[in-house]
Specification:
Blueprint: E1 3-19, E2 27-39, E3 44-51, H1 53-56, H2 60-73, H3 82-93, H4 97-115, H5 119-123, E4 129-131, E5 134-136, H6 141-153, E6 158-162, H7 167-180, E7 185-189, H8 196-205, E8 210-214, H9 222-231, E9 236-238, H10 245-254, E10 259-263, H11 264-267, H12 270-282, E11 286-290, H13 296-306, E12 312-315, E13 328-329, E14 333-335, E15 338-340, E16 350-351
Parallel strand pairs: 5-6, 6-7, 7-8, 8-9, 9-10, 10-11, 11-12
Antiparallel strand pairs: 1-2, 2-3, 4-15, 13-16, 14-15
Helix pairs in contact: 2-4, 3-4, 6-7, 7-8, 8-9, 10-12
Length: 353
């Protein structure tokens, strides 16, 4: 098996509705960088990076340049020796996790294609479907109810409600959504917007409504996160505080949270995500596989990871739903809020560029 060529193609993805989160500018479009590996045998594999400069501080040209460096050395790497190949790529582009993610996904996709197996089975195959939440972005109480109703009409049984700007308003929004849709499972994501006192007030007020709360305090305030975790009546998951395996190990060692939110797009890919899964499992921390605004190709990677391990308790893989021009044709299916894998080899997606 020989890689003959690696192509790097940036694409501007347009959203059907703006994304509003506490502490971040409104998002109306994102840049995705697709990587295509071509082999001597005529097989193709795909990977992708997404650019969220306000979330990760990586700029578009930085990621594109790093991907081009990876493309230059890809033909010299054996795609079957995936650990060695990714280690070599890490030496070249380790300081740009988004670019590393793109090649990580492409090499994993190619491994599945060559093996003739869906990637989730190669990674472990613990299950073949998982229930995912859909996100209700920041807005007024009425706007949040309307978003929630729209997602419920699409078949979702679980909602992740964005908050973090006004704790009292967040309580009213969650309560209003619960009154409107009492059978749905609700989560709250504060995006680091609360003080310890505010977080505990919110969790106590909503203890009977929430499945869990995500990143209640600022990403760098780990001691504050631990205080909330110790006293909250609902589980607390770290999100922006988790940057990769090293930060996951720190959170696990000091028990700063009850669980970790792992994003394949921001941690560097499946290789790093699986290391974080191992850390969480031996530390008895729960795991949520989450996402940013990203094309279905990356959702397929997150889904492959989520289906691979018994340690993964939650999924939040809806980041592709509001992209109007996603070039990915997914192989997975969405059925009543369940993401269901198919037996298409690799990531199971085609990309039409």
């Amino acid at each position: 098996m020989q890689i003959t060529k690696a192509d790097v193609t940036p694409v501007e993805l347009i959203l059907t509705q703006p994304v509003k989160m506490a502490g971040y500018p409104e998002i109306n479009q994102v840049t995705a960088v697709f990587v295509r590996l071509q082999t001597q045998e005529g097989r193709d594999a795909w990977g992708c990076a997404v650019l969220h400069p306000d979330l990760t501080s990586q700029q578009a040209q930085e990621v594109i340049s790093a991907c081009q460096k990876g493309a230059d050395i890809a033909p010299d790497l054996n795609p079957i020796n995936i650990e060695y190949s990714l280690a070599r790529l890490t030496q070249v582009i380790a300081d740009v996790p988004a670019a590393l993610c793109a090649f990580d996904l492409a090499f994993h996709d190619l491994l599945g294609v060559v093996a003739g197996m869906p990637l989730y089975r190669i990674l472990g195959g613990y299950r073949n479907k998982i229930l995912t939440s859909a996100t209700v972005f920041l807005g007024t109480v009425q706007e949040s109810i309307e978003q929630a109703q729209m997602r419920a009409s699409q078949g979702f049984r679980m909602l992740k409600i964005k908050g973090g700007l006004d704790p009292e308003e967040d309580v009213r929004r969650v309560q209003a959504i619960h009154r409107t849709l009492p059978d749905l499972i609700l989560r709250l994501d504060a995006d680091g917007g609360y003080t310890v006192e505010q977080a505990l007030d919110v969790t106590r007020a909503l203890g009977n409504y929430l499945e869990m709360i995500e990143q209640p305090t600022p990403a760098t305030d780990l001691n504050g996160l631990r205080q909330v975790t110790r006293h909250s009546p609902v589980p607390v998951l770290a999100d922006q505080s988790v940057l990769g395996p090293a930060s996951a190990l720190e959170i696990a060692t000091h028990r700063y949270a009850d669980g970790l939110s792992i994003k394949v797009a921001t941690c560097g890919g499946l290789r790093c995500a699986r290391q974080m899964d191992a850390i969480a499992r031996v530390s008895h921390l729960s795991i949520m596989v989450s996402c940013v605004v990203e094309p279905a190709l990356m959702i397929a990677a997150g889904l492959s990871f989520a289906l691979s391990s018994p340690g993964i308790a939650y999924a939040d893989l809806d980041g592709y739903l509001d992209i109007s021009n996603d070039p990915t044709v997914p192989g997975f299916r969405m059925e009543d809020g369940w993401l269901v894998a198919t037996d298409v080899p690799g990531l199971g997606c085609t990309v039409e560029l």
